[in-house]
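Researcher: Here's the sequence for the chain we discussed earlier.
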Amino acid sequence: MRRPRSLDVEGLGHGSAPIPMGARVGNMIFTSGIAGKDPRTGKLAEGATAQAFHAFENLRQLLENGGATMADVGQVTVLTVDESLRDAVNAEWLRHFPDPHDRPARHTTVQALRGGALLQLMAIAAVPDNG
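Model: Thanks. This is the structure I predict for it:
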């Protein structure tokens, strides 16, 4: 069995917690909760639209660091503090997955999040054979 290889995005992390942003095991990538932090500042972006933008961009970068792309994502779980944030998430969803016939599965859950985050993404991706 292959051991997990930790994946991170420069400028981001889980503070002092010893948790990577994701892990690659064989040809699979599994993410932790990816928040809408700006990697230049390490701080959460202001508002749902900006947090959604950064969360999807952080997911994209994490996948690239693991040898995958957004096209390799099979499932996304969206955690959000309020159902009203769905429009902000959907705008980024459609930007990254424009083809309705080529989108990953998705589930959205409303729950409390830490540190002022309005939303987080968790994803599972399959790295292509050449990745």
